């Protein structure tokens, strides 16, 4: 239980005229810690009880149950509560030391499934920073939901279908070279795609050919199908290299094509419910009552759309996974699409559409300017991740030249830095992609937190410390108290991050905890001979456990040495 609730409940037992909730709202934090940790002003009771607030305060202070508190005293009209820091630190250290990485684990989900629609790059197109954001945010949310007892299912909804494949096939047959593509799939396929689009502007016949090839593909023509499969495989080789670097894996690669044969059912339901209206030859669903423009379900030539596939996708997921939540981690620019999708499903009578959540995120800039392929302001992910590792390695070599496994540590630090920087910003705010700031060991960065963890491990090694769950560790000084309070908050933070679908809550928490520890370390000589030495080491040990666990929830490693 948190301290505020404890105080409120103790007070409520003596104040029949107020509810615990009302008391909670009245509690104040005293201006100085000499006045205790929490204070209750008795003014509010004076009128009700027709007594002077001073008298009420001293009366309550006398009668209240003080277990768990160092003392409870009346100061004028206030009742001041001094928490028993020693006892609380004892309890928290014991919990963390006993539960270790399970500290904060809960069973709110009872094993129910939560699906994450994540990453989802488009075949034959570059993997963008938006796809990176989707990948790392969803991966972190997956860990966070698992920590709360849900079963997280990671699904890559690859963009692997559409008219562009007709274009690609035509381009490949005109100008493509298999070996060249296999050496560098995305770049080469993109070149073909750009070229065919440019030439089709001049030569409409190319468009017509592309249309025919896409039709063949849809009809299952062998040649078209083999080419499509090959484009997809080659693109995936490249995407998988990025996923390996990021240490992210998926339970399913169910792309858009997976739903080719699963759209009829949804369309049938729309028809049966009389929801499909014709508009200029196309089929639409009116969404006026949701304050949304109509959703276009089928084009006049019968072709299905992005949203038609997403309808089938949601129905498939509901049926296959019976999800508690179906979460889509996709950029803000698609928020309109997901609103329409939910509204259409709701119209179809699917109340589970209430459990679909679009977790959106903001744009990334570079040198404070919008990314633009045309203007050459682009971020190429693979070389950027390599560069992050190289920069991490340089810093490690300067700080700790004898470190073993330098490359592996540099990988954890470099990639962790990019992820952490992405995750620490509030989702809906974008950020400027600044590799130097990301990989810095100073400031609010992943390496800063990792370094705090590694420093703790080095202290523990020097002391040869073995934490015991039945030892009587306790601390009551102000510096350790800051850490104890943070350790106590961790389970709550995990819950809040899940409720708000926002890993930045955990990232900020990790920074606060690392900073609190570094402050403590600067102030207290942990390793010196002292009656509190073991308790101080236990505090360091528990901090290490929670730091490592917070990083794990973000998908970031915590090297033992750095
Ligand atoms: N492939 C899309 C893109 O790159 C993202 C897909 C998001 N997921 C979905 N179920 N619509 O923009």
TrEMBL record:
A motif ('HIGH' region) lies at residues 121-131. It holds the Pfam family tRNA-synt_1d. Its main location: cytoplasm. Keywords: Aminoacyl-tRNA synthetase, ATP-binding, Cytoplasm, Ligase, Nucleotide-binding, Protein biosynthesis. It is found in: Cytoplasm. Belongs to the class-I aminoacyl-tRNA synthetase family. HAMAP family: Arg_tRNA_synth. Monomer. This is Arginine--tRNA ligase. The lineage of its organism: Bacteria, Bacillati, Bacillota, Bacilli, Lactobacillales.
């Amino acid at each position: 239980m948190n301290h505020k609730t404890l105080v409120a409940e103790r007070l409520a037992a003596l104040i029949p005229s107020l509810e615990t909730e009302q008391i909670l709202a009245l509690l104040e934090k005293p201006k100085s810690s000499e006045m205790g940790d929490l204070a209750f002003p008795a003014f509010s009771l004076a009128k009700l009880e027709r007594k002077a607030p001073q008298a009420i305060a001293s009366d309550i202070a006398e009668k209240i149950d003080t277990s768990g508190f160092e003392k409870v005293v009346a100061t004028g009209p206030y009742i001041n509560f001094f928490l028993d820091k020693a006892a609380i630190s004892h309890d928290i250290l014991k919990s963390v030391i006993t539960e270790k990485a399970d500290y904060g684990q809960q069973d709110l989900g009872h094993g129910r499934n939560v699906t994450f629609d994540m990453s989802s790059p488009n075949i034959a197109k570059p993997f963008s920073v938006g796809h990176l954001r989707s990948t790392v945010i969803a991966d972190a949310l997956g860990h966070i939901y698992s920590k709360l007892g849900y079963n997280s299912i990671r699904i890559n909804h690859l963009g692997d279908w559409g008219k562009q494949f007709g274009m690609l096939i035509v381009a490949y047959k005109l100008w493509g070279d298999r070996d060249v593509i296999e050496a560098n799939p995305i770049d080469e396929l993109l070149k073909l795609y750009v070229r065919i689009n440019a030439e089709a502007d001049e030569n409409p016949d190319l468009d017509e050919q592309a249309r025919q090839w896409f039709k063949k593909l849809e009809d299952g023509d062998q040649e078209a199908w083999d080419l499509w499969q090959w484009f997809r495989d080659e693109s995936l080789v490249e995407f998988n290299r990025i996923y390996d670097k990021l240490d992210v894996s998926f339970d399913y690669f169910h792309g858009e094509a997976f739903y080719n044969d699963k759209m009829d059912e949804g369309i049938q339901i729309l028809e049966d419910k009389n929801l499909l209206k014709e508009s200029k030859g196309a089929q639409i669903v009116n969404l006026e009552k949701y304050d949304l423009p109509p959703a276009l379900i089928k084009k006049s030539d019968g072709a299905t759309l992005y949203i038609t596939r997403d309808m089938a996708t949601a129905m498939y997921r509901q049926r296959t996974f019976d999800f508690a939540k179906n979460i889509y981690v996709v950029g803000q620019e698609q928020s309109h699409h997901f609103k329409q999708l939910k509204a259409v499903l709701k119209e179809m009578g699917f109340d589970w559409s209430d459990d679909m959540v679009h977790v959106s995120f903001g744009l990334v800039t570079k040198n404070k300017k919008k990314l633009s392929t045309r203007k050459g302001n682009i971020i190429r992910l693979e070389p950027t991740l390599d560069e992050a590792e190289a920069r991490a390695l340089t810093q490690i070599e300067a700080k700790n030249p004898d470190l073993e496994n330098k490359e592996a540590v540099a990988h954890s630090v470099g990639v962790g830095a990019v992820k952490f920087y992405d995750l620490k910003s509030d989702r809906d705010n974008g950020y400027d992609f600044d590799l130097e700031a990301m990989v810095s060991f100073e400031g609010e960065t992943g390496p800063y937190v990792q370094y705090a963890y590694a420093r703790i491990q080095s202290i523990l090694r020097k002391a040869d410390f073995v934490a015991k769950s039945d030892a009587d560790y306790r601390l009551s000084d102000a510096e350790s108290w800051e850490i104890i309070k943070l350790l106590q908050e961790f389970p709550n933070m995990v819950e809040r991050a899940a409720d708000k679908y926002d890993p930045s809550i955990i990232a900020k928490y990790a920074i606060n905890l690392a900073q609190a520890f570094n402050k403590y370390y600067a102030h207290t000589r942990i390793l010196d001979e002292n009656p509190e030495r073991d308790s101080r080491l236990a505090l360091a040990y528990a901090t290490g456990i929670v730091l490592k666990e917070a990083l794990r929830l973000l998908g970031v490693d915590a090297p033992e040495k750095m």
